[in-house]
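User: These chains co-purify. Model them together.
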Amino acid sequence: MLTNKLMQIHDLLLAAYGAQGWWPGSGCFETVVGAILTQNTNWANVEKAINKLKSANALDADKLYNMDQDTLAQLIRSAGYYNIKAGRLKNFLNWLYENYDGKLEALANMSVYSLREELLSVKGIGRETADSILLYAFDKPVFVIDTYTARVFIRHGLIEQEADYEQLRDLFESNLPADTKLYNEFHALIVQAGKKHCKPKPKCHGCPLESLPHETQQDY
DNA sequence: GACCAGGCACATC
DNA sequence: GATGTGCATGGT
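Assistant: Joint model of the three components:
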């Protein structure tokens, strides 16, 4: 049963790394900003950008909505792709103000499906970012898929090499209880394992999952 | 210096 | 529909 396999992996990773506690009490808005800033970017660089925003007393929807885009870009410089990301933050804020009066609380009561579709309609918010916002900012039981998730599960032969984002998401959501806390930790643990052992060029030695079958040797 | 990071949109075939 | 490319700082 896949459920058991998934839980075995979760338990091995949890035993090895401990609870990751992603975005603990950061607040909804900060989490949304972080989700956009971390696109294809090391979290340490994102933290610097978030701290810059805090220092400027600007980590606030109203402040960012009214801020000049170039000024915002300079504040988030350390997160990389700063011009692109400043635009994406602006796209999100413009959408929030035009449709929801700038109130994140207005989103919390929406159905997961509706909110996901609406987030995806914002340019710069793709599937992983939308799902990260749903899970980590709004506590919705949505499993976040990222590069590491695909890499780890393909390399272990748990899903076909050609599997796309939705197939991977379905693998988790269909075989695990809809448990926000479980999804939160599990995704973070997979990322942690990926950082250490599942680089594009494999470094499997010492990985908590090393003893599990690697049914594919193909690079992903 | 090479490689990598908690993606996404867009162009082109 | 698949594949390629630009975006960019900062750590290892």
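The two ends of chain A are 25 Å apart (CA to CA).
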